[in-house]
Specification:
Strand content: 25-35%
Number of strands: 17
Structural class: alpha+beta
Order of helices and strands: HEEEEHEEEHHEHEEEEEEHEEE
Shape: elongated
Length: 307
């Protein structure tokens, strides 16, 4: 048993000696230049070799490398045009609402491959107005019902987003609902115009119940800018209501908002490619002035998908 242990110990000692000798040998190796003035192979002090890249100590890196993010089309175009190469290409992903430019992508079949280390992402941000309307949309959240008071406050806050009915009519509806928050609402009648007329009864002090009606439109039209820096779109929202033990509940359902988002993204991609011109019409003179915002990225190829 002792001889076996001694033999085993001898093997271990021999292996340790061999490693030590190898480490000493490697330690004596001079740094080996792998690429002129940039990369070296040197001993790591543990019997191995490590590679040192001197790029971090140079006045400038050998090639650009970055991952940038912008939030509007104009900034995206400006960056791409500033850094574009012959291999630059752009990828647009509709469902993710993002556009990615690979500045140093592969060039042609007979050209050198690109490093693909320099990228720019357009991460579109939704406007506060869009998010406010979507947050209470019954089509996306079936529990987004308002009380009369809440509905009146919401309409008053977002009245400037509504195109039809006009601002004054909308405020009048909101004010009436707010004033009748303690009334008992009974039947609702759909009029020939499509509007909905609510009948209510309210009691003032000790007087007998006083009756009245409130008429609201079947639909309202909204003007919203889905993405910051993007164009404005018109949407329709269907008015909704229900009555129950807790009184009258009010709400709305926006018609196909996902189609508007798809259209808004497609228009932004078109703007990136072709550029953008803003038109402003003077209300007093009726004269329209055109201002060229940017010229787009021109012949840089755009693909739909992810890089």
């Amino acid at each position: 048993m002792t001889d076996y242990k001694n033999a085993e110990l001898g093997v271990i000692e021999s292996a340790s000696e061999a490693a030590t000798i190898a480490a000493l040998a490697v330690a004596g190796i001079e740094p080996h230049q792998l690429a002129e003035g940039t990369i070296y192979a040197v001993a790591d002090g543990r019997g191995g070799v490590k590679v040192i890249d001197t790029d971090d100590f140079a006045d400038a890196p050998r090639r650009p490398k970055a991952n940038r993010t912008v939030t509007d089309a104009a900034s995206f175009v400006g960056y791409v045009n500033r850094h574009r190469t012959s291999g630059t290409e752009v990828y647009a992903h509709t469902s993710a609402s993002s556009v990615i430019a690979v500045i140093d992508s592969h060039q042609g079949t007979d050209e050198p491959a690109g490093w693909e280390k320099h990228k720019l992402t357009l991460a579109l941000e939704k406007t506060k107005a869009w998010e406010a309307w979507m947050a209470s949309d019954l089509g996306q959240n079936s529990h987004s019902w308002f009380t009369q008071q809440e509905f009146a406050e919401f309409i008053e806050d977002r009245a400037l987003d509504v195109i039809e009915p006009d601002h004054a009519t909308l405020i009048e509806i909101a004010t009436t609902f707010e004033a009748k928050s303690k009334a008992d609402f009974g039947s609702a009648v759909r009029l020939d115009s499509g509007a909905i007329q609510f009948e209510y009864t309210e009691t003032v002090a000790a007087k007998a119940g006083q009756k009245g009606t409130i008429e609201v439109p079947k639909r309202i039209q909204i003007a919203l800018r889905p993405y910051i820096g993007g164009p404005i779109y018109y949407l329709w929202a269907q008015f909704r209501y229900r009555t129950g033990a807790n009184g009258l509940a009010l709400g709305y359902a926006i018609e196909r908002p996902e189609n508007i988002l798809d259209a808004a993204f497609a228009d932004i991609v078109t703007e990136i490619r072709d550029g953008r011109t803003d038109k402003i019409t003077d209300a007093a003179t009726g004269k329209t002035t055109e201002t060229r915002i940017h010229d787009g990225i021109g012949d840089v190829p755009i693909f739909y998908g992810r890089p």
